[in-house]
């Protein structure tokens, strides 16, 4: 099928036809691609893997596996993490790329639809919610979940975090961060068609748009365009009397392709008109990873065919097709072939010419028609210079054309020894010397593989000390040949740090798949600190974190306050797929702590991260906490004085000697922030549950009677402190808080509850401590009433001595006051008498 459109010729080509792997009643039900790999799902649950080898123009079935007895409705490739997922019978199966090895991380069930989100996440539509999941190694992590959404299909926006989804009748937009939803419009009041949603970025506005299809009536449908925030954009596509695109739609600027029952319809995105229709059946999908196909029409035996990349795939019950735009080169070759075939009589006239250019044209003509006998005779008769040197521009820049050499390589098995003597490289040296051309540029232009280039450069390293225009020309030539390994090696020699990082990232992400022996992570880490561009720096560091999180985290810790401090903070706050990594969590904590101290982060943000770190204690922490608590009980008994310390004070004093220092520090920091923020965060302590490690948290923050809880925990210091100040004591050396606590009203009554516990437990040492410490706030009569009848007075003699001393002191003070009063009166009387005498004298 050829479709002539204003921008060129589009063709449909079969890449899998009447597959023998399908049983009679079995059909293709889904498709996806990844480079030279094609993944097909069938109606009976078979997952088929086709591959196109370099020496084969078509796709060959190399493996198949049965998932379950249900159709495989979707296959999604996540190139960022080298993973694939297949949806079969509501169950999501996970695989590694490219070989589709099953991952042993379980299956996700009750799934209705999946789609890619920001290249690395997957939107998963379940029965009553949307979930966003992410691959973390071989495991899957839940990133976000939005409940109470009965969707059938969803598509993520790549310019923001919003998601457009379809229910049974209408389209809506949801923000997964806060769950806010915005209804758009109905697409089918009867619920008879499948919604179509395609996000794309048109070059005319460079702003993301989403195309949504709507069924107007039985025979008519329309396409609405909205922005990434839900506002209408370019207008409406109308498909009058075309029914509905049940076969799917795809966007490839400037066209919308759709399959309407048995018609393939192309519409313009520029004027919103229908510009082409063809008879076709099947399902159309726009896959995010173009499938690589060879065009056999213009290939000689043994010569690599022209490659076609297409992301428009059509499949029906038994076959798979790609729809692609024919290249200008191929169209030119078609015309050229027709021209040559029609000029055989004129070409024969060249046989009598002696000019080298005519000889080369004749040589190429004989090669094209595979006239080997004439070729051998032609070689005997004339010496062919097999090099064509192309000059461009006034500066005399030149490049080396090696097409003739490739042709000879194909023909060599058919030629005699004399013709084989036309070895390209030997001729090249003679040619270069005789023409006194720039040996370096032309020599480097002659390489077709990175290995050839690198081997040659190792003998010419002096030329690669610093960038020059000539070396840049060589690198551009390598890039045009897709010799990415050679390009990276060039930048390493030239110490181009930004380009080293950018290329290394493309290798790590799989964008470049060339063979190499570089330690890419080392290359990036060695270059990072020399980078100035924050985007290149961020992309490179993120990729290191993805492939080797420990080394990436170690690098950030070492340079956290360096010139890219802002980028570090952004990465640490945004990258959540490493949240289970202890080193990463610790690093993120340091950043939040600094922000909290700078007042750019709230106590709530700090608490949220601390709680996340505290929720999953390791086995070492659990075992050690039990031992530490028993030690605390032994050391915190009442001796001749008072309780040694609070539980948090005890932990802080011994944490440097334990095997779980980091966990204790997080424990204490969490306690401090919770103590500071008060009871507004009780809901965040649901994880405490029955885990004995968090008994102290329950006593301080969730129990109704906190004083009794602390007494049961046997932290008498904290119980007494709570009675006086209304909250438990902070660790002796605070991490964040500067708070001066003041006694609360009515603490005298609360302290009696503590004393009652000491009295009930017949703990005489505790009673003595209490009377000696807090006796001053009670009268002697109240103390006597509080004391147990069988208590030896030896335990309270210090208190009563202090009382008597205080009373004696008060008596002495009274006597002295009276004496001073008398002296004061006498002095006043003498003063008045003296004044009266003086007045009489005057």
Mean pLDDT figure? 77
CA-based gyration radius: 42 Å
What percent of the residues sit in helical stretches (DSSP H or I)? Answer: 25-40%
- Total domain count: 4
GO biological process, one term: endosomal vesicle fusion
Organism: Candida tenuis (strain ATCC 10573 / BCRC 21748 / CBS 615 / JCM 9827 / NBRC 10315 / NRRL Y-1498 / VKM Y-70) (Yeast)
Protein name: CNH domain-containing protein
Domain CNH: 24-300
Give a quick precis of the structure.
By secondary structure, this protein is α+β, with helices and mostly antiparallel strands.
Model description:
The protein has about 850 residues and is an alpha+beta fold. The strands form eight sheets. It has a five-stranded antiparallel β-sheet, with no helix packed on it. A four-stranded antiparallel β-sheet has the order 3-4-5-6, with no helix packed on it. Strand 30 and strand 31 form a beta hairpin. Helix 13 packs antiparallel against helix 14. About 5% of the residues have low confidence. This is CNH domain-containing protein. It is found in: Cytoplasm. InterPro entries: CNH_dom, Vam6/VPS39/TRAP1. It comes from Candida tenuis (strain ATCC 10573 / BCRC 21748 / CBS 615 / JCM 9827 / NBRC 10315 / NRRL Y-1498 / VKM Y-70).
């Amino acid at each position: 099928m050829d479709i002539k459109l204003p921008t060129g010729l589009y063709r449909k080509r079969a890449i899998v036809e009447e597959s023998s792997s399908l049983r009679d009643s079995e059909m293709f039900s889904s498709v996806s691609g990844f480079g030279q790999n094609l993944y097909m799902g069938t109606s009976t649950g078979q997952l088929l893997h086709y591959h196109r080898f370099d020496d084969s123009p078509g796709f060959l079935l190399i493996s198949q596996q049965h998932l379950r007895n249900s159709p495989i409705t979707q296959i999604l490739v996540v190139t960022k993490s080298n993973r694939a997922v297949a949806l079969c019978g509501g169950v999501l199966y996970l695989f590694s790329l490219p070989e589709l090895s099953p991952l042993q991380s379980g299956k996700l069930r009750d799934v209705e639809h999946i789609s890619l989100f920001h290249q690395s996440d997957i939107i998963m539509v379940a029965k009553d919610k949307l979930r966003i999941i992410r691959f973390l190694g071989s495991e899957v992590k839940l990133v976000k979940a939005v409940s109470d959404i009965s969707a059938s299909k969803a598509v993520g926006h790549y310019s923001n975090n919003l998601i457009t989804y379809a229910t049974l009748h209408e389209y809506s937009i949801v923000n997964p961060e806060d769950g806010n939803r915005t209804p758009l419009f109905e697409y089918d009041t009867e619920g008879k068609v499948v919604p179509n949603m395609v996000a794309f970025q048109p070059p005319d506005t460079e702003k993301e748009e989403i195309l949504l299809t709507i069924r107007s009536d039985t025979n008519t449908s329309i396409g609405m365009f909205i922005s990434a925030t839900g506002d209408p954009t370019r207008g409406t596509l109308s498909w009058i009397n075309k029914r509905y695109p049940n076969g799917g739609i795809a966007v490839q600027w400037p066209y919308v392709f759709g399959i309407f029952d048995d018609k393939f319809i192309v519409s313009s995105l520029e004027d919103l008109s229908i510009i082409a229709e063809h008879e076709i059946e099947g399902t159309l999908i726009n896959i995010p990873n173009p499938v690589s196909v060879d065009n056999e029409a213009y290939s000689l035996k043994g010569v690599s065919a022209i490659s076609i990349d297409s992301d428009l795939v059509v499949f029906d019950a038994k076959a798979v097709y790609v729809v692609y735009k024919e290249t200008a080169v191929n169209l030119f070759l078609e015309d050229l072939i027709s021209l040559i075939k029609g000029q055989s009589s004129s070409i024969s006239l060249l046989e009598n010419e002696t000019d080298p250019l005519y000889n080369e044209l004749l040589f190429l003509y004989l090669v094209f028609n595979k006239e080997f006998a004439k070729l051998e005779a032609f070689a005997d008769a004339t010496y062919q210079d097999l090099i064509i040197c192309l000059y461009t521009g006034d500066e005399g820049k030149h490049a080396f054309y090696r097409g003739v050499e490739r042709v000879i390589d194909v023909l060599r098995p058919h030629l005699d020894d004399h013709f084989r003597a036309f070895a390209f490289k030997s001729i090249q040296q003679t040619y270069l010397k005789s023409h006194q051309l720039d040996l370096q540029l032309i020599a480097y232009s002659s390489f077709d593989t990175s290995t050839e280039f690198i081997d040659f450069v190792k003998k010419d390293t002096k030329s690669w000390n610093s960038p020059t225009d000539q070396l840049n020309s060589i690198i551009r030539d390598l890039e045009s040949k897709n010799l990415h390994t050679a390009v990276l090696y060039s930048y390493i020699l030239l110490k181009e740090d930004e380009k080293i990082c950018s290329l290394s990232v493309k290798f790590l992400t799989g964008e470049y798949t060339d063979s190499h022996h570089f330690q890419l992570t080392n290359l990036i880490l060695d270059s990072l600190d020399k980078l100035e561009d924050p985007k290149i720096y961020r992309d490179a560091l993120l990729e290191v974190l993805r492939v080797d999180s420990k080394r990436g985290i170690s690098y950030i810790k070492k340079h956290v306050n360096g010139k890219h401090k802002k980028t570090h903070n952004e990465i640490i706050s945004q990258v959540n797929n490493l949240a289970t990594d202890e080193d990463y969590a610790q690093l993120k904590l340091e950043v939040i702590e600094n922000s909290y101290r700078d007042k750019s982060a709230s106590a709530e943000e700090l608490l949220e991260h601390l709680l996340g770190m505290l929720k999953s204690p390791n086995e070492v922490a659990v075992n050690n906490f039990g031992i530490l608590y028993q030690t605390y009980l032994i050391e915190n008994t009442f001796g001749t004085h008072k309780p040694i310390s609070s539980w948090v004070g005890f932990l802080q004093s011994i944490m440097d000697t334990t095997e779980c220092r980091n966990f204790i520090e997080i424990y204490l920091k969490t306690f401090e922030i919770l103590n500071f923020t008060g009871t507004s965060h009780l809901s965040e302590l649901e994880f405490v549950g029955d885990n004995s490690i968090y008994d102290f948290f329950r006593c301080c923050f969730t129990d109704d009677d906190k004083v009794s809880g602390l007494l049961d925990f046997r932290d008498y210091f904290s119980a007494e402190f709570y009675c006086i100040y209304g909250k438990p004591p902070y660790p002796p050396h605070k991490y964040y808080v500067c708070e001066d606590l003041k006694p609360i009203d009515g603490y005298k009554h609360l302290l009696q509850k503590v004393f009652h516990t000491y009295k009930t437990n017949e703990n005489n040492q505790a009673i003595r401590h209490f009377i000696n410490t807090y006796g001053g706030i009670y009268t002697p009569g109240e103390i006597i009433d509080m004391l147990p009848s069988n208590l030896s007075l030896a335990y309270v003699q210090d208190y009563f001595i202090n009382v008597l001393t205080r009373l004696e002191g008060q008596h002495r003070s009274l006597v002295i006051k009276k004496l001073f009063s008398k002296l004061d009166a006498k002095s006043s009387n003498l003063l008045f008498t003296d004044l009266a005498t003086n007045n009489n004298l005057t």
